[in-house]
Write a structure and sequence with these properties.
The complex is a heterodimer of chains A (329) and B (407). With 329 residues, chain A is of the alpha/beta class. Chain A is built from 10 helices and 8 strands. An 8-stranded mixed β-sheet of chain A has the order 2-1-3-4-6-5-7-8, with helices on both faces. In chain A, helix 6 links the parallel strand 5 and strand 6. Chain A starts with 29 loop residues before the first helix and ends in a 17-residue tail after the last helix. With 407 residues, chain B is an alpha/beta fold. Chain B is built from 14 helices and 16 strands. The N and C termini of chain B lie far apart (53 Å). The relative contact order of chain B is 0.11. Classes of the chains: A alpha/beta (329), B alpha/beta (407). Strand 2 of chain A pairs parallel with strand 9 of chain B.
């Protein structure tokens, strides 16, 4: 990063924690880890504003794992809740009824169901109004809290509870993952970034960068989901790393609309290595390998990196597209 | 007579300004829009020291309103009809948060079919949401009830949001004389809002936490119910003080020519004026007619209803709303309030009328009293009345014929 940062190496990860251990989320949850790291950078003076999802169940009366403020709103409208909190704090400070020392950073935290689907309208409104807030979407690519149903973040070829792979529907979900980064960028959010827990330094610096920007600061964090994706909870970080190395999860940011990849995997690992490790893609390999589908996925990754490289002036060595031996679906 | 000519909408905005609201999240909808346009003007002209923000939906508007109220701001907003339905989820949330903000609802019938003029299916969709509800008959009441509603909602014994209702068109766009209270008197009546446990850096709080056990959920719900019931007593206290300061008197219900009345019609909102006119006409004809107006709808003033309606021969409940498959919404509430009362009326007549603001004539209103008298005289069971005149029905037939391509 060009700008000065207090994060030179991962050892600069702040030791202070504002999230207690022993919360109610699943072992290996990438979502809560993203919240924890995010909070370390922002410090203690935070108002989290939440929409229905996995994080909602961590705040179970009378307990809270947070040392900061929390407001659960509703599935569709967490960004509007952030608007209310931000505006109230601002108006009270302007009227001299609240000292500046009581001010809070307002952070929306939702899963992909809220961010990509039901809450997109409220997010668009908050971005239009240039609301000074952070949005952290922990993206596990499906409705995880309700048991893993398809969302518009679910990738092509993933099986979910509402798009199960069957003989008649052998690929599971055939819709393409919505490009929320581009959606948010097109709405003129001044800062948009993707995050992965496996790339901690990149994570820390992007949150730090957001603290210096006024307006909507939008983050999409990959949230490996052992129960939904079907892998061993100890492998969460490895799996997120693999998502980055295969090019499935690009690490990038947009500052005032200008996109830059913050980590370029010079040689992409074939995507089949990523897919093969997860239950949600097991139907792509069993009983026989669906080479057509896997080739389609690899081609889209290769095309993405080719285009990004051409735009930003880097080169990525992409894997060969697997030979298509299975019938097209 | 003193006072300024104000529309109901401007009267609502004036109430918000006098209440020194901090924050107005807004979203336009007919016939409410004049309220938020007026406030937007006043804020931008520096006449009103508030923050005005237009949201992208009523659902977001109410989310912002409730969240800001929790964070310590006095909040005012407004809606109508579809907007009320669209934000219904948030009404339950905001009352569960115990965020004492105020929502002005300008009543308008709900789609489909789409209509602009008033009935009360919109505001009554919110009847179980936990919001207090005060309904206005006049533009003066609109301003006054805004001030009273804040006073009650923000009382520590209550801490619940409130709706002040006014009828679209009949009040919203109708100029009536309104006496605006002096700011210094309002400031005496309505002290600054003191939030309970607002979100702060020095003292973090969790709001809207999950409750996964039924007994705990039951506790919070009963608590909310108890606070809503308490609001009636708090309203009466506040109304006494209001009368001392401003000279106008309000109660949860208001009687009109009730003292010796045998036949009483129960009404609410602006059409009550038609009811008063009908009562006078019946009195001229020697019929002991009277009227009971519901000003407070939540909490439901069951004791007052029982006290004032016991001993009457026949009561008619005029519902300007319709629950298809059941009937009027107030009818079962009034009947329930009377069932266990000694000397309850011999009969309770359900009437549904004025849907979508249907013009209602004096003859239609007196026909209701004629029916009440007939029920009493003939000892017959009351059959529900649905108001529609012959001249209206012939127009309906013509329009249906056009729609079917027959003429």
């Amino acid at each position: 990063m060009a700008t000065a940062t207090r994060f030179k190496t991962l050892k600069d990860m702040p030791t202070g924690d504002y999230l207690s251990p022993g919360n109610t989320l699943c072992a290996g949850c990438g979502g809560i880890l993203a919240v924890r790291i995010f909070h370390k950078v922002l410090g203690p003076n935070v108002a989290w504003v939440n929409a229905a999802g996995c994080m909602t169940v961590t705040m179970s009366y009378p307990l809270s794992p947070l040392k900061s403020n929390w407001l659960y709103t509703a599935f569709a409208s967490a960004p509007a809740g952030a608007q209310g909190v931000r505006d109230a704090l601002d108006v009270l400070m302007a009227k001299g009824r609240l000292p500046k020392s009581e001010d809070l950073k307002v952070v929306v935290v939702t899963g992909d169901g809220a961010a990509y689907d039901i809450g997109l309208q409220a997010t668009a409104g908050a971005i239009d109004r240039r609301l000074d807030f952070f949005y952290l979407c922990y993206d596990n690519e499906a409705y995880g809290n309700t048991g893993f149903q398809v969302s518009s973040s679910t990738p092509f070829g993933s099986s979910t509870k509402t798009t199960p792979a069957t003989a008649a529907f052998p690929l599971g979900n055939v819709a393409r993952k919505k490009d929320l980064f581009e959606v948010w960028r097109s709405m003129k959010a001044p800062y948009v970034a993707t995050l992965a827990n496996s790339h901690g330094l990149d994570f820390l610096r992007k949150v730090e960068k957001g603290t210096g920007i006024k307006g909507p600061k939008m983050y999409i964090a990959l949230a490996a989901c052992p129960t939904g994706w079907g892998f061993d909870s100890r492998d969460s970080i490895e799996l997120e790393k693999l998502a980055v190395q295969t090019g499935v999860w690009p690490l990038k940011e947009s500052v005032d609309g200008v996109v830059r990849h913050t980590f370029v995997p010079r040689t992409l690992t074939p995507v089949s290595e990523y897919l093969r490790t997860q239950g949600r893609f097991s139907h792509l390999f069993e009983p026989e390998e669906k080479t057509e589908a896997i080739a389609t996925i690899q081609e889209s990754i290769n095309a993405y990196w080719k285009e990004a490289g051409a735009r930003e002036g880097f080169e990525v060595k992409v894997p060969a597209t697997p030979e298509r031996t299975s019938p097209s679906n | 007579m003193k006072g300024k000519l104000l529309t109901g909408n401007v009267a609502a905005a004036a109430g918000a300004m006098l209440a020194r609201v901090d924050y107005v999240p807004a979203y336009p909808i007919t016939p409410q829009t004049e309220i938020i346009e007026t406030i937007a003007d006043w804020v931008r002209e520096g006449k009103m020291d508030s923050r005005f923000v237009q949201l992208e939906s009523e659902h977001s508007m109410m989310t912002a309103a409730g969240a800001a109220s929790l964070a310590g701001a006095r909040v005012f907003t407004a809606t109508s009809s579809q907007g009320m339905l669209y934000t219904l989820e948030m009404l339950y949330n905001v009352s569960g948060w115990r965020a004492p903000m105020l929502l002005a609802n300008v009543s308008r019938g709900v789609a489909a079919p789409i209509v602009l003029e008033p009935d009360h299916n919109d505001v009554l969709a919110a009847r179980d949401s936990g919001f207090l509800q005060l309904h206005s008959e006049t533009c003066q009441e609109v301003t006054d009830l805004v001030l009273l509603a804040y006073r009650v909602a923000e009382d520590r014994r209550v801490m619940l949001p409130a709706i002040v209702n006014l009828d679209g068109f009949y009040l919203s766009f109708t100029r009536e004389r309104v006496i605006l209270p002096e700011q210094k008197d309002v400031d005496r009546f309505l002290p600054p809002y003191e939030p309970v446990g607002p979100m702060r850096a020095s003292k973090p709080v969790s709001r809207g936490s999950s409750v996964f056990e039924g007994f705990l959920y039951s506790y919070f719900r009963y608590n909310q119910h108890a606070a809503a019931l308490k609001a009636k007593e708090v309203f009466n206290e506040a109304a006494r003080e209001f009368e001392d300061l401003f000279g106008r008197s309000y109660g949860p219900v208001e009687g009109f020519m009730l003292d010796d009345a045998d036949y009483v019609i129960v009404m609410s909102n602006s059409f009550t004026a038609l009811g008063r006119q009908a009562v006078r006409r019946m009195r001229e004809r020697g019929v002991k007619a009277g009227l009971l107006k519901l000003l407070m709808v939540r909490p439901f003033p069951a004791e007052e209803v029982a006290t004032l309606l016991r001993g009457r021969k026949v009561v008619g409940v005029f519902d300007q709303n319709l629950a298809p498959g059941s009937g009027g919404i107030f009818y079962p509430e009034i009947s329930g309030a009377l069932y266990n009362v000694r000397g309850r009326p011999n009969a309770i007549l359900p009437i549904v009328g004025a849907l979508g603001g249907k013009q209602t004539t004096a003859n239609e209103m007196t026909a209701i009293f004629d029916e009440m008298v007939a029920i009493d005289r003939e000892g017959k069971a009351p059959a529900p009345m649905f108001l529609m005149r012959k001249d209206e029905m012939s127009r309906v037939k013509k329009m249906v014929s056009v729609a079917e391509g027959k003429s």
